[in-house]
Each structure stands twice: as C-alpha cells, then as structure tokens.
Design brief:
The protein is mainly α. It is built from twelve helices and no strands. Helix 2 (29-49) packs antiparallel against helix 3 (54-74), helix 4 crosses helix 12 (289-328) and helix 10 runs parallel beside helix 12. The chain crosses the membrane at residues 99-120, 173-203, 215-242, 262-280, 289-309. Pfam families: SpoIIM (PF01944). Keywords: Membrane, Transmembrane, Transmembrane helix.
Length: 329
C-alpha cells in the first residue's frame, strides 16, 4: 500500500485519537484499549513498510500518548496525591525536559552577570541589595556573624513570612510566562543577578565560606525551585508562541495545564526551604560543619534526583510496561 493512501485511509481515526488524548472526547477504559490495539496495528504496519517515515514517528508518539492515558486511567484508585508526585509530574518533566535545561542555562548566565557586575562596580551590591541591608551585613561580618540577618524575628514568624514571599516570587516566575516567556526570564534575571551580586559581596568581604554554610541550607531548595518555576513560565510562553499543529488556544490550554502541574510540584520544596530558613539557618555557624554539608548536599540530592534523574526512571518504566503490553497483544 502506498504511504499516501495509508495516511488518507487512517487520518480521521488518528485525529480522533488525538482528541481523546487532549480530553475533547471521553472514552471508557475498554474503548481506550481498543483504540490502542488498533493504533498498534497501524504502527506495526508502518514500521514494516515505511520504517524511516515521519508517519512511523508520529504513530509511535501517538501510541505512547494513548498508552499513558490508559496507564493513568488504570491508576485512578491509587492515592491521587501520591500518583501526582510519583508519576504524573515526573512524566511531564521528562516531556518538557529541554525547558528545564534552558531555564538552568539562563539562570547560570544571569547569575554570572550579577557576579561580573559586582566585580566591576563596587556600588552594584548597594543598588541591588539596598544600602541598609549592605551596611547591616558588613557590621555582622565584622562581628564574625555573616548570617546574622537570618537571626532576627521569631522562628515561626520568619518561616511564614519567608515562605509566602518565596511562593509569591515563584508565582511571578510562572505566571509572567504568559508574555511569551519573556516575563519569566525578566523575573529570573532580577533574582539571579541579585544572587550573583549577593554571593560576590560576601566573597569581597572574606565571608563567602560562612555565608555559604548558612545561605545554602535553605538556598538549594529555594533556588532550584525558582529555576523549575521559570521552566514552567517558558512552557506556558512557548505554548502560545509555537502552537505547532494545534490552534493557539488549544496549545495554550495544554501548556497551561501541564506547566501548572509542574509548578505545583515546587510548592513543597519552597515550604521546606522556608522552614529551614526560619528554624535552621539562624544556627548555621554554631552547627558542626559536617552537619551543614549533610543538609546542603542532602537537599541537593533530593531535588536534583526528583527533577533530573527520576523523570527518566519513570519514563523508562512506562516504556517497558508499554513494550510488555505490546508483546502480550
């Protein structure tokens, strides 16, 4: 059969499956399985007669999507919250993994800009951080307490205020992505430049080691979550700018839904960062150095594993399950 005729013969069916995947058409589990079996037959045919064709690539992607929908439907009875963090978010992060890479590249670039600006302009830290904060911190450094600013206020009051502020920053990083992703990059720029100048400020006064012992106790979760939130803003923005084969509105709906789920996954890390900053960071210089390192690298392992490694594990597991299912069929 000629490929053109094969496509013409099955085009409407494939478009219908796309609508099922997008949620425009509702199907029960049995109907989903039937669609999947039918699609697998088309994929097998295409792999045999058009192995290097775009049609084969398209059908392989479509079968993967419909299998994920079946997999999700069968897992409805599982704890919804557990499924969300254990499977749904990691699969979305894997799907949009290049946006996480872009967000980290921009973060490193913008932070470097903050460091360089502070190196070549000695007044830059005063402009970015505020003269009052800088003067207070200089006094703290001279007194041998580089993280003294974190010791003011009550523990619970600081925790609540810090957490709400960080969630607000994260929301801006995400929501401002509606402006084609530029808004998210602007917020990321502002915060990254501040971080870079902030760290160089401590280095310039010989207190980088002490500041790092305190700041990165909570900073690992806080900063990493900030980058993931910027990733969500980029997903939202590009869904508007690059709708591909979908209408711009449909692309926005999918981008909004997917990016919001990933954004929600950062909230627990942001809350943990607030708790650490409110209760632990104030004791940073009194703690044994090895304990600081355990907390810092422990947090880095947890959040790094969840967003960088675990999505590949979940995706591989899903693909293996799909391969097994295909073999049974």
């Amino acid at each position: 059969m000629r490929e053109v005729y094969f496509i013409k013969q099955n085009k409407e069916k494939w478009l219908g499956i796309e609508q099922v995947i997008q949620g425009k058409i509702k199907k029960n589990p049995d109907d989903l399985s039937s669609l999947y079996i039918n699609l697998i037959n088309d994929l097998s045919f295409a792999q045999t007669y058009y192995p290097k064709s775009n049609t084969t690539v398209y059908l392989n992607h479509l079968s993967s999507q419909i299998f994920q929908k079946i997999y999700k439907t069968k897992r409805v009875e599982e704890n919804r919250m557990l499924y969300f963090f254990k499977t749904e978010v990691p699969l979305l992060v894997y799907q949009y993994r290049r946006y996480l890479l872009y967000a980290f590249i921009f973060f490193i670039l913008f932070t470097s800009m903050g460091v360089l600006s502070a190196i070549y302009d000695k007044d830059f830290a005063n402009i970015i951080l505020g003269e009052s904060y800088v003067n207070t911190t200089i006094e703290n450094i001279k007194a041998g307490n580089a993280v003294g600013v974190y010791q003011s206020g009550s523990t619970w009051g600081s925790t609540i205020g810090i957490t709400l502020n960080n969630i607000g920053v994260g929301a801006k990083l995400y929501i401002y992505g509606i402006f084609g992703g530029i808004g998210s990059l602007y917020v990321l720029l502002s915060n990254s430049v501040m971080l870079g100048s902030f760290q160089y400020f401590f280095y310039d006064y010989g207190a980088l080691k002490d500041s790092a012992r305190g700041i990165w106790l909570h900073g690992v979760f806080e900063i990493f979550a900030m980058v993931v939130e910027a990733m969500c803003g980029l997903i939202l923005g590009t869904s508007i700018l690059f709708p591909k084969t979908l209408s711009r509105f449909e692309s926005l709906k999918i981008g909004l839904k997917d990016s919001f789920k990933i954004f929600l996954s950062t909230i627990p890390f942001t809350i943990c960062a607030g708790i650490i900053e409110g209760y632990v960071t104030r004791h940073a210089l009194k703690m044994p150095g090895f304990l600081n390192l355990i907390i810092i690298f422990g947090c880095l392992f947890i959040i790094g594993f969840y967003y960088f490694v675990y999505p590949f594990i979940v995706n591989k597991k899903l693909n293996n399950a799909m391969t097994t299912h295909d073999a049974v069929l």
